Every structure is written in C-alpha cells, then in structure tokens.
Amino acid sequence: MIFDKPTSVDLLAAINHFLDTKIKSEVPPHLAFKLRIVENVLNIVIREIEKGDELSNEVINLLQSLMESDTPSVETLALLIKEEKIDLEDQDLKDLLVTLSKNKIAVDNPNYSTFKKLIK
C-alpha cells in the first residue's frame, strides 16, 4: 500500500476513541445514546476494512464450490434456491449459509451471543 501511517483504521479508531473519551461525557444522555450508535458504525467500518476481504473470500470460495461458477454471488445462490435448483438439505449449502452468517456477524456485531456460539 502506498499510504503511510496513520492508516484508515488508525484514523477511524482515533475518532472513536475521541468520541468515547472526550465527547460522550459532555453530552446529554439522549445524545450520548446517538453517539454510541456512531461509535458502533465506526467499529463496523473498522472491522470491514480489517477483515472484509478475508471473510468475503471464504464465502466466495464456498459459493464457487457449490455453484460451480466463475462468478458466484449470494444473489445467484438465492435465485438457485428459489428455483429449487439447489436442495435445501444439501450439507454444502448449510455449511455455506452458516459461514456466510458467521462472517457477516463477525463484522456487524462480534459480541452477539449467537456469533460466540458459532465460533466455538
């Protein structure tokens, strides 16, 4: 990468830290709640930057195996399921859907209790 420090993740983390340590205690409760929402969004963006490619590639590889396609997508998978071209009882499909869900939750909310059960 051509960019030096700070990275995008470093900058987003700095903003998040600033909001949490300097701003949150100075705003009324209703704004503190909204600030927490902003912090959560920043954390999602950070996780997507850090892990997004790896998690996406894992799902794409499973999609390629299941669909035997060079250009697999979740949308195409949904269409194949709708058209009953893939059996809902197919174990590879089930494994793919669990991985897809797990990887999405890993970015959206890794503290979600179901996610913690999935990764055990």
Provide an overview of this structure.
The protein has helices at 8-23, 29-67, 74-82, 91-108, 113-118. The protein is built from five helices and no strands. The longest helix has 39 residues, at 29-67. The protein has one domain (8-118). Helix 1 runs antiparallel to helix 2 (29-67) and helix 2 (29-67) runs antiparallel to helix 4 (91-108). It has 120 residues and is an all-alpha fold. The two termini are 34 Å apart.
User: Outline, from the CA principal axes?
Assistant: elongated
Strand content: under 5%
User: How far apart, in Å, are the first and last alpha carbons?
Assistant: 34 Å
The amount of helix comes to: over 70%
Mean pLDDT: 92
Look at the helices and sheets and give the structural class: mainly alpha
What keyword list fits this structure?
about 75% helix; single chain; about 120 residues; mainly alpha; elongated
Brief write-up:
By secondary structure, this protein is mainly alpha-helical. It has five helices and no strands. The two termini are 34 Å apart.
Describe the secondary structure blueprint for this structure.
Blueprint: H1 8-23, H2 29-67, H3 74-82, H4 91-108, H5 113-118
